[in-house]
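Record type: monomer structure entry
Structure origin: computed from sequence
Chain ID: A
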Amino acid sequence: MKKLLLLFVATLTLASCDTNDDNINYYYDAVPTVSADVPPTMETDKAYTITIDYKKPTNCYTFATTNIEGRIIETEDPDNPDAEPTETRIITMAVINRVDIKTDGECEELAEIAQTPVNFETLESGSYIFRFWAGVDENEEDIFLEYPAQIL
């Protein structure tokens, strides 16, 4: 996930820079999710809004985008090796903020929790796990908040 976030941030930074401007006055940073409002059950072919609460560390941070990736994992039933594997869809999200670099002083620290909505359209039924990037631990490993959901 760290590599994906780094690639995403690098791409955004390069794509949004003016090549005639030697003074870059912002960068992009992933911010930790505090909680998310994910319905435990949803219906197929409907749109839902997932609200993500995230930490906004300073007043120099403003919402830019939400990075979303999906993958499917298959799990076999150890009690029934002849059964078909069960598929679970993993949806991983990270909130990305633009951080303005102030030249006339430092940014003011905030103890603010901000919100952003994410529209999610349910195209396929099945088991889902929604994962939200919540920071890194003392070993620099990514931490995720996980919310299971069923799409019927």
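Annotation 1: The chain has a mean pLDDT of 86.
Annotation 2: Residues 2-16 form the longest helix (15 residues).
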